[in-house]
Amino acid sequence: MTRRILLDCDPGHDDAIAILLAAGDPGVEIAAITTVSGNQSIEKVTRNALAIAELAGLDPAVPIARGAHRPLLHEVEYAPEYHGESGLDGPQLPEPTRALDPRHGAQVIIDTIMGSEPGEITLVPTGALTNVALAVRLEPRIVDRVREVIFMGGGVHVGNHGPFSEFNIAIDPEAAQIVISAGWPITMVGLNATHQAVVTPEIRAKLDAVGTRSSAFVGGLLDFYGAAYAGHGFAHPPVHDPVTVAMVIDPSLVRTVKAPLAVELSGALTKGMTVADLREPAPATTPTSVALGVENERFWDVVAAALARLP
């Protein structure tokens, strides 16, 4: 059965791969794409989302909407050291031809969920959780209508923004706490899992062999992205965001455990840390899960198959 997903993202090299994976896999239907400030400014990441949709040949009827231009409480923070000044430095982006939806991204989230059958929409945020938090506050009924939320962010005792904080959570921790504590079924796909989704030379050769325009574009993304990660001590670049979409396609690709989850909001050294209680067993009513591993070879097989279906 096809799973309808709403992607809330800040493209971003790995967000771009997540969009292409969702567009190319027959088990997924993209209901909408919303953008949020993060890897770069809202203007840049929104243009990037439109360009990736153009590359993928995404149905023009799928709405793409610009969302929050800054976090709820904090000043904006970007990640040009990983994604460049455009947010998608490296390959040449196609010129977008589709119109941007005039609604705010948070409103598109609400409208998409409330306009679908209960349990039909899976929400897949791969950036800061600002738009989702705004949507929950504006229309709390979405919590009971979403099938599940699978978000990229956080980690268990691991960080990339600080010693224990991950970028997506750290730049808007209050939004993350609103979303994580909302009560809906939610899985945190954090650094414990995504640092295992790496592009080895063998994986890169597999992607290059696909031979489509989309796979060549991903190769260009990985040239820049891999060099950026090499500068931060990674032998092979991890691609975080597509793991969320892969989990929708095939949950067996990602190892998860149920665990109570919260975000540290006041610690002088730990603000933005996601705190997962891994003491077992978790209460049966626990709605939160955390991802701890990913099967890298099978994950990339799914990505390569999706790229082969795209232009």
TrEMBL record:
Pfam families: IU_nuc_hydro (PF01156). GO terms for biological process: purine nucleoside catabolic process. InterPro entries: I/U_nuclsd_hydro_CS, Inosine/uridine_hydrolase_dom, IUNH, Ribo_hydro-like. It comes from the Bacteria. Keywords: Glycosidase, Hydrolase. PROSITE patterns: IUNH (PS01247). This is Purine nucleosidase. It comes from Schumannella luteola.
